[in-house]
């Protein structure tokens, strides 16, 4: 895929533009007193956009997560690029907003993800300029009903895997007698297992949909004197990871690591990082320079390599 221009407003977007050898255009976000937003492309003339293949980066902050604002900002930016005669528009959303709300469990609940993807397709895809939306390890990754089931042919979704990033990281750790355990994210645990050539186990985690409480099954593997990698797709409150760590420590492991493609909130960070284990995540959400209690892997090479091969 040819990308002429990357549009964003952070270092992640700038670095991605460099990797893709593309022009970078910054977005200046103005917030009105009533909290309406106005994302403005920092260009000298409107002709700068005409005929370009543009990649729009949609990324939010894990310390002050505002996915709803990010969705509106994305829509306004994409429409603006379309009006300014961009040729093709692609969207990079490292963390896919609303993907974990893919079904309803109680009366009156919306099936939020299908509504959001319908919004994207009707709002962003109607001019036939938006050709793809690229994300990483969405909550639907590897499941029977995957992200493709929520889009029609207007926008093509690409849900890519971060296992290579984590595999390289853990190879450098020289793990001993290691095992991977995942509280529910079976497919990503399996893929990391294959890359590291170590066994894995995925735990069922039935949820009480009225209280939100999760009760994990006990693992079958004995972790005594073993290095254990707890691998899940995301942590929001951190409760599931905390319970998994407690289960692992019951059998006296050697070392425990937590590997998460997405670490979503400050509350989750506090809870996970206070467990006394090594935590590694990615830069799918922006952390700025405000937090150094976890290792953050750059996804820029992962996305740039994937985009070049499309």
Account of the 3D structure:
Helix content is 29%, strand content 23%. It starts with a strand and ends with a helix. Strand 4, helix 2 (67-83) and strand 5 form a beta-alpha-beta unit. It has two domains: 5-160, Rossmann fold; 163-297, 3-Layer(aba) Sandwich (Rossmann fold). It has helices at 11-19, 67-83, 112-123, 163-173, 186-196, 239-249, 266-273, 300-309, and strands at residues 5-8, 23-31, 37-41, 53-57, 88-92, 130-136, 156-160, 179-182, 200-202, 227-231, 234-235, 255-260, 262-263, 278-282, 295-297. Strands 3-2-1-4-5-6-7 form a seven-stranded mixed β-sheet, with helices on both faces. A six-stranded parallel β-sheet has the order 9-8-10-12-14-15, with helices on both faces. Strands 11-13 form a two-stranded parallel ribbon. It contains eight helices and 15 strands. The longest helix is centred in the first third of the chain and has 17 residues, at 67-83. With 310 residues, it is of the alpha/beta class.
Mean model confidence by pLDDT: 91
The assembly state of the depicted protein chains is single chain
Under the CATH scheme, which class of the largest domain? Alpha Beta
Distance between the termini: 5 Å
Q: What are the secondary-structure elements, in order, as H or E?
A: EHEEEHEHEEHEHEEEHEEHEEH
The largest sheet has its strands arranged as 3-2-1-4-5-6-7
Strand-pairing-aware structural class? alpha/beta
The number of helical elements comes to 8
Low-confidence stretches: none
Query: What's the CATH topology label of the largest domain?
Result: Rossmann fold
Helix content: 25-40%
Largest sheet: 7 strands, mixed
In one word, what is the shape? globular
């Amino acid at each position: 895929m040819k990308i002429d221009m990357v549009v964003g407003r952070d270092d992640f977007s700038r670095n991605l533009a460099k990797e893709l050898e593309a022009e970078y255009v910054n977005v200046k976000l103005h917030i009105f007193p009533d909290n309406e937003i106005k994302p403005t492309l920092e260009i000298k003339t409107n002709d700068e956009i005409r005929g370009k293949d543009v990649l729009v980066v949609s990324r939010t902050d894990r310390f002050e997560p505002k996915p709803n604002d990010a969705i509106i900002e994305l829509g306004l930016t994409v429409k603006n690029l379309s009006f300014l005669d961009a040729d093709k528009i692609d969207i990079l959303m490292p963390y896919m907003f609303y993907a974990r709300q893919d079904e309803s469990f109680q009366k009156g609940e919306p099936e939020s993800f299908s509504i959001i993807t319908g919004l994207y397709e009707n709002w962003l895809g109607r001019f036939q300029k938006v050709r793809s939306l690229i994300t990483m390890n969405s909550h639907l990754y590897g499941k029977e009903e995957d992200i493709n089931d929520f889009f029609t042919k207007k926008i093509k979704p690409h849900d890519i895997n971060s296992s290579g990033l984590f595999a390289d990281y853990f190879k450098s750790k020289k793990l001993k007698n290691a095992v991977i355990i995942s509280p529910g994210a079976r497919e990503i645990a399996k893929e990391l297992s294959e890359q590291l050539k170590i066994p894995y186990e995925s735990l069922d985690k039935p949820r009480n949909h009225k209280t939100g409480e999760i009760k994990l099954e006990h693992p079958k593997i004995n972790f005594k004197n073993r290095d254990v990698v707890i691998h899940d797709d995301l942590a929001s409150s951190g409760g599931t990871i905390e319970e998994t760590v407690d289960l692992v420590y019951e059998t006296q492991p050697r070392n425990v690591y937590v590997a998460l493609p997405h670490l979503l909130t400050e509350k989750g960070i506090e809870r996970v990082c206070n467990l006394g284990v090594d935590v590694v995540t990615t830069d799918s959400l922006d952390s700025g320079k405000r937090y150094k209690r976890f290792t953050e892997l750059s996804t820029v090479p992962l996305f740039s390599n994937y985009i070049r091969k499309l």
